[in-house]
Each structure stands twice: as C-alpha cells, then as structure tokens.
Amino acid sequence: MTATQNTIDTVRIAAAAADRLKASDIEAYDVSDLLAITEIMLVATAANERQALAVAQEIEKDVYLNCGKLQPRSREGLSEGQWVLLDYGDFIVHVMHQDAREFYRLGRLWRDCPTIDLQLEHPEHSGASDAEAATDADSVAVED
C-alpha cells in the first residue's frame, strides 16, 4: 500500500507553506506500509518557538484554503512551540524546534520508508544532507 496521490498533493501544499516561512530540513515519508494510522509523516525544522508556531499556522491556513477547508483533527504543542503536531488523519505534520529535531531524530524512525518529492520552490530547505548537496553541486559543475 502506498500513499494516495490526493494525500501527496495535500502534503506538498503543507510543505510549500513551511518552505515559504523558511522552515528547514523539510522531509516527507510514505509510512503507509509501516503504520495503519496514517499515510505520510511531514517533518520541518524551525529555528525557534515563534517560527514553529508561525509555520504551523501557515500550514493550517494553506491546507484549509487549498484543500476543501480541510482542518486538523487535533493539534498539539501550541503552548510550547517546541514540537507542534498537526494530525490530519491521512498525514501528520511535525514542526519542530531545531533542538527538539536533533534530540528526537524522527527521520531515523522512518529511514527505510520511501521519501516523497515535495517539489519545493526552495529545495535548499529540504532534507537533503550536506553531503548530497555537495555531490549534486559537483555533478552540476562537471556538466557545465
């Protein structure tokens, strides 16, 4: 079983909202084979609590406006801003303060799951590692 195209499209809207507010390390994992409760986990990093709350709010707004007034089933972490979780059922959004992201390392839980191409406007904010980015830069330089 894989994530539905509709869910992928909605997650891309959420990721674009996070990207627009300069969240970093934006990654999405297709966890549908691993978990029965959801299809996709979207994770984004914020530099501080204020940014985490702003990113979560922007995601909610964009998903609501662009996806048939879809709202999260539940929200957690809004009072602290360290780790904001938005549960939309088919996908779950984690907006994490940089320290919390480094401590909990959620990506290691889903490292064997397929990642989703988020088609971000600012791919430098995506979850590509520095080593991958350096390799990509080297290959571009060679091609020129």
UniProtKB/TrEMBL annotation:
**Low complexity: which segments have biased composition?**
128-144
Which keywords accompany this UniProt record? Cytoplasm, Repressor, Translation regulation
Say if the entry is tagged with keyword Repressor. yes
Domain of life, per lineage: Bacteria
What SUPFAM superfamilies would the database entry show?
Nucleotidyltransferase
InterPro entries attached to this UniProt entry: Iojap/RsfS/C7orf30, NT_sf
GO cellular component, as recorded: cytoplasm
| Chain segments annotated as coiled-coil in the UniProt record | none
**What GO molecular function annotations does the UniProt record carry, in alphabetical order?**
ribosomal large subunit binding
Q: Which GO terms describe its biological process?
A: cytosolic ribosome assembly; negative regulation of ribosome biogenesis; negative regulation of translation
* Chain intervals for the UniProt region annotation (Disordered): 122-144
Q: What does this protein do?
A: Functions as a ribosomal silencing factor. Interacts with ribosomal protein uL14 (rplN), blocking formation of intersubunit bridge B8. Prevents association of the 30S and 50S ribosomal subunits and the formation of functional ribosomes, thus repressing translation.
What the record says about family reads: Belongs to the Iojap/RsfS family.
**Assembly description:** Interacts with ribosomal protein uL14 (rplN).
| The name this protein goes by in its record | Ribosomal silencing factor RsfS
Origin organism of this chain?
Bifidobacterium goeldii
The UniProt gene name for this protein comes to: rsfS
